[in-house]
Design goal:
Elements: E1 4-5, H1 8-12, E2 20-23, H2 33-42, E3 47-50, H3 61-66, E4 70-75, H4 82-90, E5 94-97, H5 100-112, E6 116-119, H6 126-129, E7 133-136, E8 142-145, E9 151-156, E10 159-167, E11 171-182, E12 187-188, H7 197-203, E13 204-215, E14 234-237, H8 240-244
Parallel strand pairs: 1-14, 2-3, 2-11, 3-4, 4-5, 11-13, 13-14
Antiparallel strand pairs: 6-10, 7-8, 9-10, 11-12
Helix pairs in contact: 5-7
């Protein structure tokens, strides 16, 4: 039952080229930065990443992106990562942009054994009809577009409405970061880190968790556990320095007004 491994390098050593990885976090909040760095150091490439976004230039998934290790992204936000946008628009990276709530539910469904589900999000748009650019060529021409999806009309309280069939996501590996975890793999996330981390943990066939504080089994209140250990296969205990190394995606400041209190 003890799932603790000695290092992040050991934890990711068997992730092969071409694997699909589900990565927790939102922006730079709650991202498994140590596991990502270990994957970069291992030289693993040709990866498909499923994550809300791709970090920023030089941090988070942006490290793998900048090194040319990602062939495909399933994400809902390009955001602040200029290299992400450049690779997508220049034809170097295939990108499946997915509405954020739909992406979350696709990952949750994958971890719950649900093959697909219908959602109203995207009905009547290219999300349902197909034609969203997945890959460009170097000249800016669309060479691969999203296929049309099955739709069905359901009766709702507001009358008939079109719903779109979305397929679940099951990744080869899930990479997550938790504030606390025990040796059995039970995890607790802090604040906004409890966004895509539980979903990435659920949908990975093999899930690896880096934890800022490792505790012994029985020390976590069962009522506060966000990810049960059944979803987690490996646990990496971070050093205090690793746990404290957190970046801010965009820092904004303003001048203090005269007479403003402390």
């Amino acid at each position: 039952m003890d799932k603790v491994v000695s290092s992040a390098a050991e934890a990711v050593a068997d992730i092969p080229d071409g694997a699909t990885i589900a990565v927790g976090g939102f922006g730079l909040c709650g991202i498994p930065s140590v596991l990502i760095a270990a994957l970069l150091e291992a030289g693993t490439g040709d990866l498909e990443a499923v994550s809300n976004n791709a970090g920023v230039d030089g941090w988070g998934l942006g490290m793998l992106l900048g090194a040319g290790r990602l062939r495909r992204m399933v994400a809902s936000y390009v955001g602040e990562n200029q290299e992400f946008a450049r690779q997508y628009l220049s034809g170097e990276l295939e990108v499946e942009l997915t509405p954020q709530g739909t992406l979350a539910e696709r990952m949750r469904a994958g971890g719950s054994g649900i093959a697909a589900f219908y959602t109203a999000t995207g009905g009547g748009t290219q999300v349902a009809e197909g034609g969203l650019p997945w890959r460009y060529d170097s000249e800016g021409n669309v060479v691969l577009a999203s296929p049309p999806k099955d739709t069905r009309t359901f009766e709702t309280k507001d009358g008939p409405k079109e719903f779109v069939l979305e397929e679940a996501i099951v990744a080869d590996y899930g990479l997550v970061r938790a504030a606390k975890g025990d040796r059995h793999g039970n995890l607790v996330y802090r604040d906004s880190a409890r966004n895509f981390n539980p979903l990435a943990a659920m949908c990975g066939r093999v899930t690896i968790a880096e934890v800022e504080e490792l505790v012994e089994p029985g020390e976590l209140d069962p009522n506060l556990v966000h990810t049960p250990g059944v979803f987690v296969q490996r646990v990496v205990a971070l050093t205090p320095e690793q746990a404290a190394d957190k970046r801010i995606e965009k820092r904004t400041v303003r001048q203090r007004q005269e007479g403003a209190g402390s």
